[in-house]
Amino acid sequence: MPLSTYTDPADAPVWTVGALVAALADALRARFNPVQVEGEVAGCTQASSGHVYFTLKDEQGQLRCALFRRVAQASAVTLRDGLRVRLLGRLDVYAPRGDLQLIVERVQLAGQGALYEQFVRLKAALAAEGLFDSARKRPLPPYPESLGVVTSLDAAALRDVATTLARRAPHLPVRLYPAAVQGPQAPAQLCAALQRAYADFVACGAPQVVLLVRGGGSLEDLWAFNDPELVRTIVRAPMPVVCGVGHETDVTLADFAADVRAPTPTAAAELCAPARADLLQRWAQQRERLRDAVRRHLDTQAQRVDRLALRIGRPSQRLAQQRQWLQAVQHRAQRAVQRALQRQHERLRTSAARLPALPATRLAVARQQWLAQQRRLPRAVDALLHQHTQRLQRWQAQLALLDPQRVLQRGYALVTGPDGRVLLDATQAPLGARVRVRLARGALAARVEQHVDGAADAP
Questions:
Q1: Paired residues of 415 in beta bridges
Q2: Which residue of 23, 118, 237, 409 sits 20 to 30 Å from the alpha carbon of 428, by its own alpha carbon?
Q3: Start and end of every Exonuclease VII large subunit C-terminal domain (predicted)?
Q4: Structurally, what CATH architecture does the domain formed by 17-110 represent?
């Protein structure tokens, strides 16, 4: 029975809290649902479960709202504080706290519903043309040599980009292509600015990357970046285009057409400009690795030279080996001649014993032949020895030319470093290093005081 039928308050029924809250919730659901309400978002938070809780307020009041994860994931609008929205939902009472709340079923930007629907239609039409295909998008060069910035001269985005580039890459040249970023004239000016950047790239190869940037705003404020002709102009770019328009939650059709989308203008500058300090550190690491590789290579080659030097030996050692070989050959030749003479003598004696009746004339002729052979054999041995002696003398002369001592006697010096290695380059001995200078007779201990360019002393 309704409370108004009771005239005496003492006759009013006694409710439990839960029953009264449930009765109020039933009355709200029956009278008001579904309901649409418009206001400003405040105190927006997202729980770990994915549900979004916020307050919808205006000048006269406020209402607690709950946007469950299922609806939040399907919504095209990302809620944030200060956003004016129109909500469709159902009123209910949260029994554990007795709070009135609106269970949101749909979120729409207030006063911009038609504009957003137009955005969705344009997106679908341009996507059907293939303008948003990821296959045609190009990666950014890791180290661009120049950048182009398309934005308004009065935009805060220009200051953000300039500050970021000055901090991260002050060496990077930047070309500015001014254009309006809001209003009816903005799309045409943005297209013209991009075309100027494209012409410069075709003419001289710069800028290598173009940044299309603007600060945040409402959907109406950013509408110039949803222009179909601007989207097609971005797609025709001969170089990568980075679009950094609005805040992280703002989305325009230019973002889908660009090669890279940055959440903010500052992020766009950071993507295109590697930090100078990071590059210097990476260069220092590469330099150290290269220096270590060169040192290892030089050490390996030095060991190889040492092994070859041991195999070659000194010229005097080679000369002594050749002299021993010649003496051995001479000794073998003498013994061979002696054995040949002895065999010839035995052969003649045997022949004489077998022919006792030979006439004296024939015996005399044989004796003369034997004597002639004995005389020719020493001459042949001498000729052979003379030939080998001349060859040995030629080898000695060639080896003498290679003897380092002969080079020192002509006025040259042999300089070795503290580690005993021969110095071939002045840069091998740092200033102040002690070196040893070997002369034809004796040696000197010296210290490096100055590096002198050898080309200045050349005749």
A1: 437
A2: 409
A3: 131-446
A4: Beta Barrel (2.40)
Pick from 174, 179, 182: which is nearest to 191 by CA?
A: 179
| Reported pTM | 0.45
Q: Which two tokens stand for residue 221?
A: 């404020």
Identify the H or E element spanning 261: strand 260-261
- CB neighbours of residue 185 within 10 Å: 11
What pLDDT, on a 0 to 100 scale, did the predictor assign at position 195? 95
Residues 117 and 28: their CA atoms lie apart, in Å, by 32
Q: Which fold has domain 130-277?
A: Rossmann fold (3.40.50)
Burial tier of 276 (Cβ tally within 10 Å: 0-12, 13-18, 19+): middle
Distance (Å, rounded) from C-alpha 18 to C-alpha 20? 5
Q: Report the distance separating Cα 148 and Cα 170, nearest Å.
A: 14
Taken in order 285, 289, 290, 292, the sign of the CA dihedral is: positive
Identify the CA nearest to 342 among candidates 352, 354, 334, 330: 334
In the numeric block, which tokens belong to residue 127?
Answer: 């996507």
Break the chain into its structural domains and give their ranges.
Answer: 17-110, 130-277, 406-448
Q: Around 76, how many Cα atoms within 13 Å sit in the side-chain half-sphere?
A: 11
Those residues with Cβ within 8 angstroms of residue 271's Cβ, 6 or more apart along the chain or in another chain: 140, 242, 260, 262
440, amino acid identity:
A
Which residues are bridge partners to 64 per DSSP? 55, 101
Residues of the chain with pLDDT under 70: 1-11, 111-114, 275-277, 279, 311-316, 351-363, 366-367, 370, 374, 400-402, 453-459
Enumerate the β-bridge partners of residue 436: 416, 445
- The C-alpha R_g of the chain, in whole angstroms, comes to 52
| Encoded amino acid at 68, one letter | F
Residue type, 148: G
The rounded distance, in Å, linking the Cα atoms of 27 and 115 is 36
